[in-house]
Amino acid sequence: MTTSVTRQVIAAISKGPCAAILRPAGFRRSSPHFWRDTGGINHAINFQASQWNAGRSGQFTINLGVSAPALYQAFTGRTFPKNRGTALWPIFMRLGQFIHGTDRWWEVNSAADAHVVGEEVAA
Predict the structure, then answer these.
(1) Which residues pair with 62 in a beta bridge?
(2) pTM of the predicted protein model
(3) How far lies 68's CA from each of 48, 98, 101, in Å?
(4) Torsion, Cα of 88, 118, 20, 80 (10° steps)
(5) Could you read off the pLDDT of 54-106 as tens digits, one per residue?
C-alpha cells in the first residue's frame, strides 16, 4: 500500500523542522508525534491527517495535549500509554485555535514542498 502525500509530508515535517525546534525543548519523537514529561505533567504535539485525504492530496492539522498519568487514568480508565504521543488528552486544543483563535488545516498535494510546509508549521 502506498503512503499518502499527506502522511509523507507529516513524516518529513516531524523529522525535520519540527524536531529541530521541539527536541531542544525536551520533546521526544514517537513517529510522527512528539511528547515530553515535565515534572509529571505530559505535553503532546500530535499530527492529525484529515479523514477525507486522497492519495495525492489532503490536509492535516496539529493538536496540542496536556495530561498526567493520574488524570489520564481517571479520564479513560486505562494506564497511561507507553507511546505518549498517541494518548487521548483530557486537555486538548488545536494549534490554530491556540495561536489564531481559529482552526488551521494545512493543505498538501503531490507538488507540495515538505520543507516549505514544515518551516511554516514550525514557525
Answers:
(1) 47
(2) 0.84
(3) 21, 20, 25
(4) 10
(5) 778 889 999 999 988 888 888 889 888 887 777 777 888 999 899 889 999 99
